[in-house]
Amino acid sequence: MKLQGILNQGMQRIARAVIAQEEPMGPPMDEPEGTTMPEGGKPKVLGVEKQAWSSGGYSGEVTDIDVFSSAAAEQMMAPFEEVQVSEVLQFLQDEYEVSPEELLEESGKSHPDQGFIRMNAPETVENMHLGDLRLAVRGARLGFSGNTYNTSWWGPTFDYTMLPEGDSDEPYAGGILLIRTHESGDVRGGSWGSYSDDKAYRIGSYAEEVPWYDLRLTVILNTDRGEVLLDAEDDEAYHFIVVKDETGTFGTDDYVDYDNLMEAFDWEGQHLW
């Protein structure tokens, strides 16, 4: 049985580096030379709206950030083909040369070194669920795993395992993605938090298609002098492009960050985050 693992953090760094090198967001943008202080002092922020979407997932729909951030895996992965346990078992046998029986055995193992004790393991292959397969492939160190909480604190939170075709370490490889939605408590799970049942989907290219590498956020500041429209430039939503500024504080296409915004506006009673 092939037990070669793929380091998750390394894979994610490679994927981000490849995307950054081959798919630039656009021409370099200059930092604003300085905030223009309109007559009468700083514009006062009366309200903040946040809208989010992912062109790679969620069917491309734009929605309120509170709705988007609580999206379930089946919503985020709506554009992709869902697969069942039998298809994942066949995939692992074809691509990783691991039999269903070996996966059944692995799914019943405990890993005390990882703080995990297996309870209620399936007795037959026919009784295996996608959650059992997730435990089996992680125990055998197949594919790579992660949590989107580490990618974007404002986006939906999913625990996932990617199984690339041919046991590949190529970030553009396709394969099958096992994914479950964080529902409550600590994102680390265990007795501190809870997740939904697992889902599985076919992915054509991990680096190009997973929705959490293509999150988009728009922030609308409603002020006493007009509307300010900002598009986030990173998953942490610290840097922004100014799309529109009716207050005259910034220019269109200015590149601003959180600190610039905190300094430029009167935020009394309002919060960007």
Structure description:
Helix 5 crosses helix 6 (130-139). Strands 2-1-8-9-10-11 form a six-stranded antiparallel β-sheet. The protein has eight helices and eleven strands. 24% of the residues lie in helices and 25% in strands. It is an alpha+beta fold and 273 residues long. It has a domain at 73-210. It has helices at residues 8-22, 65-69, 73-76, 85-96, 100-107, 130-139, 206-209, 258-264; strands at 45-54, 63-64, 144-147, 158-164, 175-185, 193-195, 199-203, 215-223, 226-232, 239-245, 255-257.
Helices, strands, pairings?
Elements: H1 8-22, E1 45-54, E2 63-64, H2 65-69, H3 73-76, H4 85-96, H5 100-107, H6 130-139, E3 144-147, E4 158-164, E5 175-185, E6 193-195, E7 199-203, H7 206-209, E8 215-223, E9 226-232, E10 239-245, E11 255-257, H8 258-264
Antiparallel strand pairs: 1-2, 1-8, 3-4, 4-5, 5-6, 5-7, 8-9, 9-10, 10-11
Helix pairs in contact: 5-6
* Percent helix range: 10-25%
Described by strand count, sense and barrel closure, the largest sheet is:
6 strands, antiparallel
Which structural class matches the secondary elements? alpha+beta
Number of strands: 11
What is the radius of gyration computed over CA atoms, rounded to a whole number of angstroms?
22 Å
Molecular shape: elongated
Indicate the proportion of strand residues. Answer: 15-25%
Please provide the ordered H/E string of secondary-structure elements: HEEHHHHHEEEEEHEEEEH
Counted by DSSP, the helix tally is: 8
Distance between the first and last residues' Cα: 48 Å
Mean of residue pLDDT?
Answer: 82
Uncertain ranges = 1-28
Biggest sheet: strands side by side, in what order? 2-1-8-9-10-11
